[in-house]
Amino acid sequence: MSKRSTNIEQLLRENIRTIVPYSSARSEFSGSAEVFLDANENYRDFVGDLGRNRYPDPLQRELKSEISDLFQVPKEHIFLGNGSDEAIDLLYRAFARPGVDRSVVLPPTYGVYTVFADLNDVTVESCLLTEEFHIDIPRVKELVRKQPETLKLLFICSPNNPTGNAMELEDIRQVLELFPGIVVVDEAYQDFSEKQSALSLLGEFEHLVVLRTLSKAWGLASARLGMAFADPRIINVLTNIKYPYNISGPAQEAAKQALSQREQVQETVTRIVDSRDELAAAVEKLSYVKRVYPSSANFILLKTTNADELCSLLRDQGIIIRNRTTQPLCKGCVRITIGSTQENHRLLEAMKALEGQL
Ligand SMILES: *Cc1c(COP(=O)(O)O)cnc(C)c1O
């Protein structure tokens, strides 16, 4: 397999290339000691005997080593962030010059890519997905023809939020071959998908970043733990520019605990996927549901006759779903997360009762 190499150094912003990272007392220390008087911490822990008085490992070495085993990716290829959101923001800061550079998103997709572009004063180019929500390769080709030197980031969400479908690995490969900057594949929902992960392309493309999260399948949205997998040069940059203690001690502990329950997580994922398919089949029969899109995630997207009204009538019964009707190609669409058996049942009964009202 031939490797496409990328001049990562050259893609980086000048100030990032030369940055001197903050070196904390804890990142300089490795080895064993008994008396820690180097970080101005309190010697007492008021929360219990949990070490909450101490700064956490800034490099998250133990956790990274477990993630490395689980995903079969060497530690040097792993960055851990305060949610995947942190990795997305840092990628902008590392690669996109404010007021000069551009990023590419493929709508309808996750809104955070655009929010962080705006925050970093980076122009966003939209390359609409096809009607069936796949990557429109000719459109991407067209886009990269104009001023490729300012195109720094492209975001592919697969399985895609809010549409639920996974992108074809072959399409992702084509984008990697076309795009001059960093290609980010956000796999927040990959645990629910049968399709092959883009992690399998890491060995071939140095400008690929794959994002994963513990917020969905791993049940740890509250802890804020996102992962970026990429070439060590990209990982080093992200590590150099992150907040020194970006993952709190409690978050690192919670993550280790969740990762130790792989079987329970896998069982739950299987249950959610089964419920998803059952719910999809059931709501498809409702007269006001025009279409249920195929899903490789833990949610389904439905096209309905009136999304606003449906959301509002369900809200009156204490059930919240996500209205996506204003998203491109999503007129009349709502996104429904798969919950517990009881929650799904309650939703379905409520939706059945709305027959004739919509
Ligand atoms: C939920 C979600 C995430 C997760 O973000 P975290 O910051 O890790 O919680 C990432 N990407 C997409 C597309 C999502 O829907």
CA-atom Rg in angstroms: 22 Å
Percent strand equals: 5-15%
Specify the number of helices. Answer: 13
**Biggest β-sheet strands, sense, barrel:** 7 strands, mixed
What is the approximate shape? globular
Structural class: alpha/beta
In which order are the strands of the major sheet placed? 1-7-6-5-4-2-3
- State the low-pLDDT regions, or none: none
| Bound ligands | pyridoxal-5'-phosphate
How many β-strands, per DSSP? 11
Order of helices and strands: HHHHEHEHEHEHEEEHHHEEHEEH
Helix share, percent:
25-40%
Distance between the termini: 55 Å
Question: What do these coordinates show?
Answer:
- The chain is an alpha/beta fold.
- The chain has helices at 8-11, 14-17, 25-28, 61-71, 84-95, 112-119, 137-145, 169-178, 232-241, 249-259, 262-284, 307-315, 341-353; strands at residues 78-81, 102-105, 123-126, 151-157, 182-186, 208-213, 226-229, 289-292, 299-304, 322-323, 333-337.
- The chain has a 7-stranded mixed β-sheet, sandwiched between helices. Strands 8-9-11-10 form a 4-stranded antiparallel β-sheet, with helices on one face.
- Strand 2 (102-105), helix 6 (112-119) and strand 3 (123-126) form a beta-alpha-beta unit.
- Helix 4 packs parallel to helix 10 (249-259), helix 5 crosses helix 6 and helix 7 packs parallel to helix 8 (169-178).
- The longest helix has 23 residues, at 262-284.
- The protein is globular.
- The model has no long low-confidence stretch (mean pLDDT 96).
- Residues 83-85, 110, 157, 161, 186, 188, 213, 215-216, 221, 226 line the site of pyridoxal-5'-phosphate.
- Pyridoxal-5'-phosphate binds at residues 83-85, 110, 157, 161, 186, 188, 213, 215-216, 221, 226.
